[in-house]
UniProtKB/TrEMBL annotation:
Name used for this protein in its record: Putative multiple sugar transport system substrate-binding protein
Subcellular locations according to the entry: Cell envelope
Species of origin: Conyzicola lurida
Xref: SUPFAM superfamilies: Periplasmic binding protein-like I (SSF53822)
Keyword annotations of the record: Signal, Sugar transport, Transport
Superkingdom assignment: Bacteria
GO molecular function annotation: carbohydrate binding
PROSITE patterns: PROKAR_LIPOPROTEIN (PS51257)
InterPro entries: Bact_Solute-Bind_Prot2, Peripla_BP_I, SBP_2_dom
Signal peptide residues on this chain, from the entry's feature table: 1-15
Periplasmic binding protein domain segment(s): 46-321
Keyword Lyase: no
Amino acid sequence: MKKILLATTAVMAVAALGLTGCSSDNGRGGEATTEEGSGFAADSLIGVALPDKTSENWVLAGGLFEDGLADAGFEGDVQYAGASNAVADQQQQISTMITNGAKVIIIGAKDGAQLGTQVQEARDNGAIVIAYDRLIQNTDAVDYYVAFDNFKVGQLQGQALLDGLAASFPDKTTYNIELFSGSSDDANAPVFFEGAMDVLQPKIDDGTLVVVSGQTDIAQTATDGWKPENAQRRMDTLMQGTYQSTTVDGVLSPNDTLARAIITSVSDAGQAEAPIVTGQDSEAASIPLIMSGAQYSTIYKDTRALVATAIEMAQALQAGDEPDTTTETNNGNVDVPTLYLDPVIVTKDNAAEAYAENPDLLALVNE
Ligand code: BGC
Protein backbone atom coordinates (compact mmCIF):
# COMPACT_ATOMS: atom_id res chain seq x y z
CA MET A 1 0.00 0.00 0.00
CA LYS A 2 2.75 2.39 1.04
CA LYS A 3 4.66 1.63 -2.14
CA ILE A 4 1.65 2.41 -4.27
CA LEU A 5 1.12 5.70 -2.46
CA LEU A 6 4.74 6.69 -2.95
CA ALA A 7 4.60 5.72 -6.60
CA THR A 8 1.43 7.79 -7.03
CA THR A 9 3.11 10.78 -5.40
CA ALA A 10 6.04 10.43 -7.76
CA VAL A 11 3.75 10.29 -10.78
CA MET A 12 1.87 13.35 -9.55
CA ALA A 13 5.13 15.16 -9.01
CA VAL A 14 6.26 14.40 -12.53
CA ALA A 15 2.91 15.60 -13.83
CA ALA A 16 3.18 18.79 -11.78
CA LEU A 17 6.67 19.41 -13.06
CA GLY A 18 5.45 18.91 -16.61
CA LEU A 19 2.69 21.44 -16.06
CA THR A 20 4.90 24.15 -14.60
CA GLY A 21 7.65 23.49 -17.08
CA CYS A 22 10.27 22.89 -14.40
CA SER A 23 13.27 20.84 -15.16
CA SER A 24 14.47 18.25 -12.71
CA ASP A 25 17.92 19.82 -12.86
CA ASN A 26 17.82 21.83 -9.69
CA GLY A 27 20.80 24.01 -10.49
CA ARG A 28 23.26 21.81 -8.65
CA GLY A 29 24.56 20.29 -11.87
CA GLY A 30 21.71 17.82 -11.98
CA GLU A 31 22.88 16.24 -8.76
CA ALA A 32 19.66 16.18 -6.74
CA THR A 33 19.87 15.98 -2.97
CA THR A 34 16.87 13.69 -2.87
CA GLU A 35 15.97 11.25 -5.55
CA GLU A 36 12.38 11.23 -6.72
CA GLY A 37 10.41 9.16 -4.24
CA SER A 38 13.10 8.99 -1.57
CA GLY A 39 12.27 11.89 0.78
CA PHE A 40 12.42 11.68 4.56
CA ALA A 41 10.14 10.82 7.48
CA ALA A 42 6.88 12.77 7.58
CA ASP A 43 7.41 13.93 11.18
CA SER A 44 10.99 15.12 10.61
CA LEU A 45 12.50 18.20 12.18
CA ILE A 46 12.30 21.31 10.01
CA GLY A 47 14.34 24.28 11.25
CA VAL A 48 13.38 27.88 10.58
CA ALA A 49 16.02 30.53 11.30
CA LEU A 50 14.64 34.06 11.09
CA PRO A 51 16.54 37.35 11.43
CA ASP A 52 15.88 39.98 14.06
CA LYS A 53 12.41 41.55 13.91
CA THR A 54 13.20 44.62 11.80
CA SER A 55 9.71 44.73 10.33
CA GLU A 56 6.27 43.28 10.92
CA ASN A 57 6.60 40.63 8.20
CA TRP A 58 9.27 38.88 10.28
CA VAL A 59 7.14 39.04 13.41
CA LEU A 60 4.23 37.43 11.54
CA ALA A 61 6.39 34.77 9.88
CA GLY A 62 7.43 33.11 13.16
CA GLY A 63 3.92 32.24 14.30
CA LEU A 64 2.83 31.24 10.81
CA PHE A 65 5.79 28.84 10.51
CA GLU A 66 5.08 27.31 13.90
CA ASP A 67 1.42 26.67 13.07
CA GLY A 68 2.00 25.69 9.46
CA LEU A 69 4.77 23.19 10.19
CA ALA A 70 2.70 21.60 12.96
CA ASP A 71 -0.33 21.37 10.66
CA ALA A 72 1.84 19.71 8.03
CA GLY A 73 2.87 17.07 10.59
CA PHE A 74 6.47 18.22 10.94
CA GLU A 75 8.37 18.96 14.09
CA GLY A 76 9.14 22.64 13.75
CA ASP A 77 11.95 24.59 15.38
CA VAL A 78 11.52 28.32 14.76
CA GLN A 79 14.24 30.67 16.01
CA TYR A 80 14.83 34.41 15.76
CA ALA A 81 18.24 36.02 15.88
CA GLY A 82 18.44 38.41 18.84
CA ALA A 83 18.73 42.09 18.04
CA SER A 84 22.15 42.65 19.59
CA ASN A 85 24.22 39.77 18.26
CA ALA A 86 22.09 38.71 15.33
CA VAL A 87 24.67 37.23 12.95
CA ALA A 88 26.39 35.04 15.54
CA ASP A 89 23.02 34.07 17.02
CA GLN A 90 21.73 32.92 13.69
CA GLN A 91 24.89 31.00 12.83
CA GLN A 92 24.62 29.20 16.17
CA GLN A 93 20.92 28.47 15.75
CA ILE A 94 21.47 26.92 12.32
CA SER A 95 24.33 24.75 13.61
CA THR A 96 22.11 23.50 16.41
CA MET A 97 19.34 22.64 13.93
CA ILE A 98 21.85 20.61 11.93
CA THR A 99 23.07 18.82 15.06
CA ASN A 100 19.46 18.04 15.97
CA GLY A 101 18.98 16.33 12.61
CA ALA A 102 16.85 18.87 10.73
CA LYS A 103 16.00 17.64 7.23
CA VAL A 104 15.20 21.09 5.85
CA ILE A 105 16.41 24.43 7.15
CA ILE A 106 14.47 27.50 6.05
CA ILE A 107 16.56 30.63 6.52
CA GLY A 108 15.62 34.30 6.51
CA ALA A 109 19.19 35.54 6.62
CA LYS A 110 20.31 38.28 8.95
CA ASP A 111 23.44 38.72 6.84
CA GLY A 112 23.23 36.75 3.62
CA ALA A 113 26.99 36.88 3.14
CA GLN A 114 27.87 35.33 6.49
CA LEU A 115 26.19 31.94 6.41
CA GLY A 116 28.50 30.08 4.03
CA THR A 117 29.99 27.84 6.73
CA GLN A 118 26.60 26.93 8.21
CA VAL A 119 24.85 26.10 4.94
CA GLN A 120 27.81 24.01 3.81
CA GLU A 121 27.59 22.18 7.15
CA ALA A 122 23.89 21.64 6.45
CA ARG A 123 24.62 20.16 3.04
CA ASP A 124 27.37 17.94 4.42
CA ASN A 125 24.83 16.57 6.88
CA GLY A 126 22.12 15.99 4.28
CA ALA A 127 19.91 18.94 5.27
CA ILE A 128 18.32 20.92 2.45
CA VAL A 129 18.55 24.70 2.69
CA ILE A 130 15.74 26.99 1.54
CA ALA A 131 16.58 30.70 1.52
CA TYR A 132 13.43 32.51 2.64
CA ASP A 133 12.76 36.11 1.47
CA ARG A 134 16.50 36.98 1.47
CA LEU A 135 19.04 35.18 -0.69
CA ILE A 136 22.11 33.59 0.91
CA GLN A 137 25.16 34.67 -1.06
CA ASN A 138 28.50 33.37 -2.24
CA THR A 139 28.02 29.69 -1.49
CA ASP A 140 27.05 26.60 -3.50
CA ALA A 141 25.10 25.19 -0.59
CA VAL A 142 21.74 26.91 -1.04
CA ASP A 143 19.21 24.55 -2.57
CA TYR A 144 16.15 26.76 -3.14
CA TYR A 145 15.04 30.35 -2.81
CA VAL A 146 11.49 31.55 -2.18
CA ALA A 147 10.62 35.25 -2.09
CA PHE A 148 8.48 37.97 -3.53
CA ASP A 149 10.16 39.27 -6.68
CA ASN A 150 12.47 41.86 -5.14
CA PHE A 151 13.41 43.67 -8.36
CA LYS A 152 9.74 44.04 -9.15
CA VAL A 153 9.13 45.44 -5.65
CA GLY A 154 11.67 48.17 -6.44
CA GLN A 155 10.16 48.90 -9.84
CA LEU A 156 6.70 49.23 -8.29
CA GLN A 157 8.10 51.61 -5.66
CA GLY A 158 9.81 53.75 -8.33
CA GLN A 159 6.66 53.90 -10.44
CA ALA A 160 4.52 54.75 -7.39
CA LEU A 161 6.83 57.66 -6.59
CA LEU A 162 6.44 59.01 -10.13
CA ASP A 163 2.67 58.51 -10.15
CA GLY A 164 2.24 60.10 -6.72
CA LEU A 165 4.32 63.14 -7.65
CA ALA A 166 2.37 63.72 -10.86
CA ALA A 167 -0.97 63.35 -9.09
CA SER A 168 -0.12 65.49 -6.06
CA PHE A 169 1.75 68.31 -7.75
CA PRO A 170 -0.06 68.85 -11.06
CA ASP A 171 1.52 72.28 -11.51
CA LYS A 172 5.11 71.13 -11.19
CA THR A 173 7.25 69.83 -14.01
CA THR A 174 10.28 68.96 -11.88
CA TYR A 175 10.30 67.42 -8.42
CA ASN A 176 12.77 67.45 -5.54
CA ILE A 177 13.29 63.95 -4.22
CA GLU A 178 15.50 61.93 -1.87
CA LEU A 179 16.38 58.25 -2.01
CA PHE A 180 16.61 55.75 0.84
CA SER A 181 17.66 52.11 0.66
CA GLY A 182 17.74 49.21 3.11
CA SER A 183 20.45 47.62 5.19
CA SER A 184 23.66 46.71 3.39
CA ASP A 185 23.81 43.25 5.06
CA ASP A 186 20.49 42.32 3.41
CA ALA A 187 20.86 40.95 -0.12
CA ASN A 188 17.40 42.34 -0.92
CA ALA A 189 18.38 45.95 -0.29
CA PRO A 190 20.40 46.51 -3.48
CA VAL A 191 17.82 44.64 -5.54
CA PHE A 192 14.97 46.85 -4.29
CA PHE A 193 17.13 49.91 -5.01
CA GLU A 194 18.14 48.74 -8.49
CA GLY A 195 14.51 48.00 -9.32
CA ALA A 196 13.48 51.49 -8.23
CA MET A 197 16.37 53.14 -10.07
CA ASP A 198 15.42 51.20 -13.19
CA VAL A 199 12.32 53.41 -13.23
CA LEU A 200 13.72 56.60 -11.64
CA GLN A 201 17.14 56.96 -13.29
CA PRO A 202 15.78 58.01 -16.72
CA LYS A 203 13.73 60.71 -14.96
CA ILE A 204 16.78 61.87 -13.02
CA ASP A 205 18.77 61.93 -16.25
CA ASP A 206 16.18 64.05 -18.08
CA GLY A 207 15.86 66.49 -15.16
CA THR A 208 12.28 65.63 -14.14
CA LEU A 209 13.54 64.38 -10.78
CA VAL A 210 16.18 66.29 -8.83
CA VAL A 211 17.92 64.52 -5.96
CA VAL A 212 18.76 67.79 -4.25
CA SER A 213 21.28 66.26 -1.82
CA GLY A 214 23.09 64.60 -4.72
CA GLN A 215 23.04 61.35 -2.72
CA THR A 216 22.19 58.75 -5.34
CA ASP A 217 24.75 56.10 -4.52
CA ILE A 218 23.50 53.10 -2.55
CA ALA A 219 26.30 53.58 -0.01
CA GLN A 220 24.93 57.07 0.72
CA THR A 221 21.29 56.01 0.85
CA ALA A 222 21.64 52.80 2.93
CA THR A 223 19.89 52.43 6.28
CA ASP A 224 21.96 50.33 8.64
CA GLY A 225 20.00 47.45 10.20
CA TRP A 226 16.77 48.67 8.58
CA LYS A 227 16.48 50.82 11.73
CA PRO A 228 13.95 53.67 11.64
CA GLU A 229 16.13 55.84 13.89
CA ASN A 230 18.90 55.71 11.27
CA ALA A 231 16.53 56.78 8.48
CA GLN A 232 15.10 59.52 10.68
CA ARG A 233 18.57 60.82 11.54
CA ARG A 234 19.57 61.01 7.88
CA MET A 235 16.31 62.72 6.91
CA ASP A 236 16.68 65.19 9.82
CA THR A 237 20.14 66.10 8.53
CA LEU A 238 18.80 66.57 5.01
CA MET A 239 15.92 68.73 6.25
CA GLN A 240 18.25 70.92 8.31
CA GLY A 241 20.74 71.32 5.49
CA THR A 242 19.59 70.65 1.93
CA TYR A 243 15.94 71.55 2.55
CA GLN A 244 16.38 74.76 4.56
CA SER A 245 15.37 76.83 1.56
CA THR A 246 13.36 74.42 -0.57
CA THR A 247 10.84 71.62 -0.10
CA VAL A 248 11.15 67.89 -0.62
CA ASP A 249 8.38 66.61 -2.92
CA GLY A 250 9.02 62.91 -2.73
CA VAL A 251 11.05 60.26 -0.91
CA LEU A 252 11.79 56.74 -2.08
CA SER A 253 11.51 54.65 1.08
CA PRO A 254 12.25 50.93 0.79
CA ASN A 255 9.76 49.87 3.48
CA ASP A 256 7.00 51.04 5.79
CA THR A 257 9.06 51.18 8.99
CA LEU A 258 11.46 53.63 7.36
CA ALA A 259 8.63 55.50 5.60
CA ARG A 260 7.06 56.38 8.94
CA ALA A 261 10.41 57.64 10.26
CA ILE A 262 10.88 59.79 7.14
CA ILE A 263 7.34 61.19 7.37
CA THR A 264 7.93 62.10 11.04
CA SER A 265 11.21 63.80 10.18
CA VAL A 266 9.72 65.97 7.42
CA SER A 267 6.77 66.91 9.60
CA ASP A 268 9.02 67.71 12.61
CA ALA A 269 11.07 69.97 10.34
CA GLY A 270 7.91 72.00 9.79
CA GLN A 271 7.45 71.48 6.05
CA ALA A 272 3.80 72.33 5.38
CA GLU A 273 3.27 70.17 2.31
CA ALA A 274 3.60 66.40 2.87
CA PRO A 275 5.92 64.66 0.41
CA ILE A 276 5.05 61.54 -1.57
CA VAL A 277 6.61 58.66 0.38
CA THR A 278 6.73 55.04 -0.79
CA GLY A 279 6.92 51.93 1.38
CA GLN A 280 6.72 48.16 1.53
CA ASP A 281 5.18 45.40 3.69
CA SER A 282 1.65 46.70 4.32
CA GLU A 283 2.39 47.12 8.02
CA ALA A 284 -0.60 47.70 10.26
CA ALA A 285 0.85 51.03 11.42
CA SER A 286 1.14 52.31 7.84
CA ILE A 287 -2.32 51.42 6.51
CA PRO A 288 -4.01 54.37 8.29
CA LEU A 289 -1.28 56.64 6.86
CA ILE A 290 -1.97 55.29 3.38
CA MET A 291 -5.68 55.96 3.84
CA SER A 292 -5.06 59.52 5.10
CA GLY A 293 -2.53 60.21 2.36
CA ALA A 294 0.41 60.78 4.72
CA GLN A 295 2.16 57.79 3.10
CA TYR A 296 1.47 57.43 -0.60
CA SER A 297 2.10 53.74 -1.25
CA THR A 298 3.09 50.42 0.21
CA ILE A 299 3.62 46.95 -1.22
CA TYR A 300 1.57 43.95 -0.25
CA LYS A 301 3.68 40.84 0.22
CA ASP A 302 1.31 38.44 1.97
CA THR A 303 3.48 36.73 4.59
CA ARG A 304 0.88 33.97 4.89
CA ALA A 305 1.47 33.06 1.23
CA LEU A 306 5.26 33.17 1.49
CA VAL A 307 5.34 30.96 4.59
CA ALA A 308 2.84 28.54 3.03
CA THR A 309 4.98 28.30 -0.10
CA ALA A 310 8.14 27.57 1.90
CA ILE A 311 6.29 24.84 3.80
CA GLU A 312 4.98 23.39 0.53
CA MET A 313 8.58 23.17 -0.63
CA ALA A 314 9.46 21.22 2.52
CA GLN A 315 6.47 18.93 1.92
CA ALA A 316 7.57 18.25 -1.65
CA LEU A 317 11.06 17.41 -0.42
CA GLN A 318 9.62 15.17 2.28
CA ALA A 319 7.75 13.24 -0.41
CA GLY A 320 10.97 12.96 -2.38
CA ASP A 321 9.81 15.35 -5.07
CA GLU A 322 11.47 18.37 -6.57
CA PRO A 323 9.73 21.56 -5.31
CA ASP A 324 8.18 23.79 -7.96
CA THR A 325 10.39 26.67 -9.01
CA THR A 326 9.86 29.27 -11.70
CA THR A 327 13.30 30.75 -12.29
CA GLU A 328 16.86 30.85 -11.02
CA THR A 329 18.66 33.57 -9.08
CA ASN A 330 22.43 33.86 -9.11
CA ASN A 331 23.89 34.24 -5.62
CA GLY A 332 27.44 34.99 -6.74
CA ASN A 333 28.34 31.29 -6.92
CA VAL A 334 25.44 29.35 -8.38
CA ASP A 335 22.02 29.80 -9.94
CA VAL A 336 19.63 28.98 -7.13
CA PRO A 337 16.28 27.45 -8.21
CA THR A 338 13.78 30.14 -7.24
CA LEU A 339 10.07 30.56 -6.75
CA TYR A 340 8.99 34.19 -6.88
CA LEU A 341 5.60 35.38 -5.71
CA ASP A 342 4.09 38.55 -7.12
CA PRO A 343 4.23 41.74 -5.03
CA VAL A 344 1.25 44.09 -5.28
CA ILE A 345 1.47 47.90 -5.17
CA VAL A 346 -1.07 49.45 -2.81
CA THR A 347 -2.31 53.05 -2.61
CA LYS A 348 -5.48 54.30 -1.02
CA ASP A 349 -7.24 53.77 -4.37
CA ASN A 350 -6.83 49.98 -4.45
CA ALA A 351 -6.27 49.14 -0.76
CA ALA A 352 -9.71 47.57 -0.23
CA GLU A 353 -9.26 45.41 -3.30
CA ALA A 354 -5.65 44.47 -2.53
CA TYR A 355 -6.46 43.37 1.03
CA ALA A 356 -9.82 41.77 0.19
CA GLU A 357 -8.57 38.35 1.32
CA ASN A 358 -6.85 39.64 4.46
CA PRO A 359 -9.43 40.54 7.14
CA ASP A 360 -6.86 42.14 9.49
CA LEU A 361 -5.63 44.59 6.87
CA LEU A 362 -9.07 45.14 5.39
CA ALA A 363 -10.35 46.19 8.82
CA LEU A 364 -7.67 48.91 8.92
CA VAL A 365 -8.73 50.16 5.50
CA ASN A 366 -12.33 50.47 6.61
CA GLU A 367 -11.59 52.12 9.95
C1 BGC B 1 12.27 42.24 3.36
C2 BGC B 1 11.35 43.42 3.52
C3 BGC B 1 11.56 44.07 4.87
C4 BGC B 1 13.02 44.29 5.18
C5 BGC B 1 13.25 44.77 6.58
C6 BGC B 1 13.67 42.68 3.63
O1 BGC B 1 14.57 41.65 3.42
O2 BGC B 1 12.15 41.70 2.06
O3 BGC B 1 10.03 42.99 3.35
O4 BGC B 1 10.92 45.30 4.91
O5 BGC B 1 13.74 43.12 4.98
O6 BGC B 1 12.89 43.82 7.53
